[in-house]
Design goal:
The structure holds two protein chains of two kinds. By secondary structure, chain A is of the alpha+beta class. In chain A, strands 2-1-5-3-4 form a five-stranded mixed sheet, with helices on both faces. In chain A, a hairpin with a 2-residue loop joins strand 1 and strand 2 (about 10-15). Chain A has two domains: about 1-75, Roll (Ubiquitin-like (UB roll)), CATH 3.10.20.30; about 80-155, DNA polymerase, domain 1 (Orthogonal Bundle). Chain A contains six helices and five strands. By secondary structure, chain B is α+β, with helices and mostly antiparallel strands. Chain B has two domains: about 5-170, Uridine Diphospho-n-acetylenolpyruvylglucosamine Reductase, domain 3; about 175-275, CO dehydrogenase flavoprotein, C-terminal domain (Enolase-like, domain 1, 2-Layer Sandwich), CATH 3.30.390. Chain B is about 30% helix and about 25% strand. Chain B has ten helices and twelve strands. A five-stranded antiparallel sheet of chain B has the order 4-5-8-6-7. A four-stranded antiparallel sheet of chain B has the order 9-10-11-12, sandwiched between helices. In chain B, helix 9 (about 235-250) runs antiparallel to helix 10 (about 260-275). The longest helix of chain B has 16 residues, at about 235-250. Chain B starts with a strand and ends with a helix. The model of chain B has no long low-confidence stretch (mean pLDDT about 95). Classes of the chains: A alpha+beta, B alpha+beta. The interface of A and B includes residues 21, 40, 57, 68 and 126 of A.
Chain lengths: ~160, ~280
């Protein structure tokens, strides 16, 4: 079947079978190499996309269901100021994730800060639990998200330096 | 692999017409349970499948003084996004305990109630809250209690060639709430179950007592609930023990869950209620 969707601001016409998962179609048809379909159950967080503005596991979405949707992947986000701030914060807190989970954790942090500019520790941990990889210790990750939130809020709300 | 036909109705009427043409058609809202429980790379669907997630009628929310009415395709995140105080307690807590944020972005309230394999997290609470569901089929529309989504054998029941259009939740508050979830938080398994106990306690007297426990099957004793409503919270320990024994006897005949776990939750709830 043919599925018309918008991916990273580009209208796309994808070919898929009824049982194909969205992650596989996006990887195969559009060569989006940030996406992996490891767990097929929403556990590993390596297939995160923004579907109509909301973070979603693309391995849990049948491709045909995405018809008419707007999808944003890490490929479009990595050059944004939000992603650059998060990477800088992860480096500063010495919490840079491994290659396995880096995109998933950055996507999860982008989503968290967009919903909540000042997340509590509990919320940070809950959000990052969606990416199951123990490469980074939770304390450093909390610190990194705190730094990223500072940078974001300073830029977005033109906040004065402390 | 079977190649299925996919349909994208834009109205509820079109969806019902599809059900009339093929009563076995699979209706998919979020699809997180159906897809998440399949471990193969390619998902198996029946010959025809309908995606209803974008039917506007199934996404509307109406609030009155007495109830909140939710379209069945309202996502769990959408429910949590309703303004603070809109949802009666402990509904927000129960929703937050379901899967993870990214799954809640896709999963819907209707899908949570329509599972054919087991009772998901919302059923026991909504059954205790006397929530109702609007069921639509080619023969018409009707409202039924959420409790009717449980068959006589205690297993989930959903009428054939029917779709769940809306859910109506009374905005009635309880001042005694016990909610416990047992087992996996991402996907429910045989070890997963939910325990709900609600009541209103005023001037040392219990009113509107409700208690439900569900997992692979559901357990609720409405006659016992009526017998407990009206009792004093200062009932003697012997009376409380008798109540627990009655529940214990009824539950021990059920073989779908470890009765010791149920009993410990029951004792905890009764200890708090009759303290």
């Amino acid at each position: 079947m043919i599925i018309d969707i918008t991916v990273n601001d580009q209208p796309k016409r994808l070919q898929a079978r009824s049982g194909d998962r969205l992650v596989d179609v996006l990887r195969k048809e559009l060569s989006l190499s940030s996406l992996f379909s490891d767990c097929l159950s929403g556990r590993c967080g390596r297939c995160f996309i923004f579907l109509d503005g909301r973070l979603a596991h693309s391995c849990l979405i049948p491709a045909f269901k995405a018809k008419g949707s707007t999808i944003v992947t890490y490929e479009a986000l990595r050059e944004t100021v939000e992603a650059r701030e998060i990477i800088a914060a992860l480096e500063k807190a010495q919490a840079l994730p491994c290659a396995f989970c880096k995109t998933g954790k950055i996507m999860a942090i982008i989503d968290l800060l967009a919903r909540n500019p000042l997340p509590a520790e509990e919320e940070i941990l809950e959000q990052l639990e969606m990416v199951s990889c123990p490469c980074t210790d939770p304390v450093s990750l909390i610190a990194a998200v705190g730094i990223a939130a500072e940078l974001r809020n300073k830029r977005k709300f033109n906040r004065a330096d402390k | 692999m079977r190649i299925s036909e996919a349909y994208y109705p834009t109205t509820a009427a079109e969806t019902v017409e599809l059900l009339r043409i093929n009563p076995d058609i699979l209706i998919l809202a979020g699809g997180t349970e159906i897809v998440g429980l399949q471990t193969s790379r390619v998902i198996e669907f029946p010959a025809q499948v309908v995606s209803i997630a974008k039917v506007q009628e199934f996404r509307k929310t109406i609030r009155t003084e007495q109830f909140i009415e939710l379209g069945s395709c309202t996502t769990l995140t959408g429910l949590l996004g309703l303004s603070s105080g809109t949802l009666p307690q402990p509904l927000p807590e129960v929703i937050r305990s379901i899967a993870n944020h990214a799954i809640r972005n896709i999963a819907t309230i209707g899908g949570n109630l329509c599972s054919r394999n087991r009772f998901m997290d919302l059923w026991p609470l909504l059954a205790c809250m006397d929530a109702q569901v609007e069921l639509r089929s080619p023969s018409g529309a009707r409202w039924a209690s959420v409790s009717h989504l449980c068959g006589e054998d205690g297993a989930p029941f959903f009428p054939k060639a029917t779709l769940l259009a809306r859910i109506r939740i009374p905005l009635y508050s309880y001042n005694f709430i016990v909610y416990r979830k047992l087992g996996s938080t991402l996907y429910p398994g045989p070890e997963t179950a939910s325990f709900v106990c609600l009541a209103n306690v005023e001037h040392g007297k219990i009113a509107d007592f409700r208690l439900a426990f569900s997992g692979l099957k559901a357990f609720r004793l409405k006659d016992r609930e009526m017998a407990i409503s009206g009792r004093k919270t200062t009932s003697s320990s012997r009376e409380i023990k008798n109540l627990i024994d009655e529940y214990k006897r009824s539950f021990s005949s059920q073989e779908w869950f470890d009765s010791r776990l149920f009993l410990s939750l029951l004792e905890e709830a009764f200890e708090r209620l009759f303290s």
